[in-house]
Write a structure and sequence with these properties.
AB_hydrolase_fold, 15% strand, single chain, alpha/beta, Fungal lipase-like domain-containing protein, 10 strands, 11 helices, eight-stranded mixed beta sheet, two-stranded antiparallel ribbon
Length: 367
């Protein structure tokens, strides 16, 4: 698919897209997410978008997804939650995502069955630009606190993708979601919302955040046996608490969500050294170990629950929260793990490179 020029981090050019190849699909999605980063950089620097990688020439930009600032003129005058384009000089809208349409090369008789029609890409946090970083960090905190579902950027993304799905009609399966870091949280939230309605979109998540104690266990250099015992104990405690306590309704809610979401299999691209997303590795791997050692326990509701979600449910019951959503509830997934010991473990660029030598994958399904 790509011809390397020089080092791994150098620019690559595309010769031909093979939609049957997992690597090709990964590289395409990652490059489009990278392009959303570039568009926001161009906006902050007052430049027109003029960077177009050669192998993306068959992808046309349909729409940029923008979020209004709270002091933005269109937000103040019209009370809009977001706008396509705002010309307000006081506080311009910033780009957090984009919709791209794939136009097959001329002479192609039939569209490849695995080729997308649209790819919706979401960028992650951009700490180097002050005007963009404030809004990004605000959402990062909300992801940690499990409050992102009702935030403007997330709700606008869901609304826009639902409109795209409605317009696509019979070609819903040709719509892809892709995101990196904070952007993968947005894509996960959108994909999960669609899946609960029975619409399963192909979703590629690069370094998706997962709030858990797994990175802490790694920093403490816990032995694998001790870590395994900790997970087993956690599962047993959850099962007991979910028996006849106030958490029983939470258990029933989680069971329903797991059943609804189980046919949806997002693709998670994580790095084993990245503390932001390594929680997904431990979650799925330990769930498989529990399944082997305690099959009956693995079929219970315990694997569907995170301690954080249980605490948030109790807070909602006590009136401290307005929602008990489970944004990171994933019964099924295809987990791609990069085990490389070089480079930045959280950068998007690693997923733009073809044929990663230390990349492995496992499919996890439910039940």
């Amino acid at each position: 698919m790509m011809a390397r020029t020089g080092t791994v981090s150098s620019v690559t050019t595309m010769a031909e897209i093979n939609w049957d190849d997992d690597d090709h699909r990964r590289c395409i999605a990652a490059r489009l997410v990278q392009r959303t980063y570039n568009m926001e950089k161009d906006r902050t620097r007052g430049r027109r978008l003029n960077r177009q990688e050669s192998f993306l020439r068959h992808f046309s930009l349909v729409e940029t997804m923008r979020e209004c600032r709270l002091k933005c003129k269109c937000h103040r005058d019209h009370q809009q939650r977001a706008c396509p384009i705002c010309n307000c000089k006081m506080s311009p809208c910033f780009i957090y995502g984009a919709i791209f349409e794939y136009v097959p090369p001329k002479g192609t008789r039939h569209r490849h069955p695995l080729a997308p029609r649209y790819i919706v890409a979401f960028r992650g946090t951009m700490p180097t630009d002050p005007t963009t970083a404030v809004g990004d960090f605000y959402l990062d905190v909300n992801v940690v606190l499990n409050r992102q579902h009702d935030r403007l950027r997330f709700s606008h993304a869901r609304e826009r993708v639902w409109k795209l799905v409605d317009d696509a009609a019979d070609s819903v399966g040709d719509i892809w979601l892709a995101g990196h870091s904070l952007g993968s949280s947005i894509a996960l939230d959108v994909g999960r919302d669609m899946a609960m309605a029975g619409c399963y979109l192909r979703t590629l998540l690069f370094n998706p955040p997962q709030v858990s104690l797994a990175p802490v266990a790694g920093k403490l250099h816990m032995a694998e046996e001790a870590k395994r015992d900790l997970y087993f104990t956690s599962y047993f405690v959850k099962q007991v608490l979910l028996g006849e306590t106030v958490l029983r309704r939470h258990k029933e809610h989680a069971e329903v969500l797991f059943e609804q979401l189980s046919p949806w299999v997002p693709e998670l691209y994580v790095h084993q050294r990245d503390v932001i997303c390594s929680g997904f590795i431990d979650y799925f791997q330990q769930r498989e170990l529990v399944k082997q050692r305690f099959p009956r326990l693995a079929r219970s509701s315990a694997p569907a629950l995170a301690s954080r979600d249980m605490v948030h449910f109790l807070c909602a019951e006590l009136g401290f929260r307005e929602t008990n959503e489970l944004p990171h509830l994933l019964p099924s997934a295809r987990l791609w793990i990069n085990s490389s010991t070089q480079g930045d473990s959280h950068e998007l660029r690693q997923w733009c490179q073809p044929r990663l030598p230390m990349l492995s994958s496992n499919l996890y399904t439910w039940p």
